[in-house]
Amino acid sequence: MNRFLRSQFAHYVLWALLLLVFVVVRPRPWSPLFLSLFGLTMALGIGLMWRSHLESVASKRAFATWQARMQSLAPAMDVDDDGHLYEWLDPPQWEAVFSELERVPRGSRSLRQAMGVVAPESLA
Predict the structure, then answer these.
(1) How many angstroms separate the CA atoms of 44 and 38, rounded?
(2) CA-wise closest residue to 112 among 78, 68, 71
(3) DSSP states of the chain
(4) What is the rounded distance in angstroms from the CA atom of residue 95 to the CA atom of residue 92?
(5) What percentage of the chain has pLDDT greater than the value 70?
(6) What pTM did the predictor assign?
(7) Cα 116 to the chain's mean position, in Å?
(8) CB 76 within 8 A of CB 94
(9) Which of 14, 20, 100, 122 makes the best surface tag, with the fewest CB within 10 Å?
């Protein structure tokens, strides 16, 4: 339950409910209720935008880190990458793939074999 309350979905639900209350109650313009509901709605909306921005920055940073590590460990790509290779596996699975690649000598590394060991269904 605590995980749900911290999720972005819960944040959107709260914001939508607040908008709905604002539309249904229809407070008199510039009344304290109007200003309170309007202020809360704007604050939650700005909070959602900020949270989305932070998550976007974090995902771009994670992708850049993954890409740098991928290029250092598997310079010869033997897997067809359509630009979405990063999305094929979850971060723990990628860590296992990288560990598998690090165990193999540099000249005989194969991303396809490492992915096949960790997640054979990803290559199907």
Answers:
(1) 10
(2) 78
(3) -HHHHTSHHHHHHHHHHHHHHHHHH-PPTTSHHHHHHHHHHHHHHHHHHHHHHHHHHHHHHHHHHHHHHHHHH-SS--S---S-GGGSS-HHHHHHHHHHHHHS-GGG--HHHHHHHH-GGGG-
(4) 5
(5) 98
(6) 0.75
(7) 25
(8) no
(9) 20
Compute the distance between CA of residue 42 and CA of residue 14 in angstroms, rounded to an integer.
Answer: 12
Phi and psi, residue 83, nearest 5°: 95, 0
**33/99 Cα distance (integer angstroms):** 58
State the pLDDT confidence band at 26, using cuts at 50, 70 and 90: very high
HSE-CB at 115 with a 13 A cutoff on CA atoms is 20
State the chain's mean pLDDT as an integer: 89
Closest of 65, 74, 64 to residue 110, by C-alpha: 74
User: What is the maximum span of the chain, computed from C-alpha positions, in angstroms?
Assistant: 74
Looking at this protein, which amino acid is placed at residue 81? D
Q: Which residue type occupies 7? A: S
* Segments making up each domain of the chain, as ranges: 1-56, 74-124
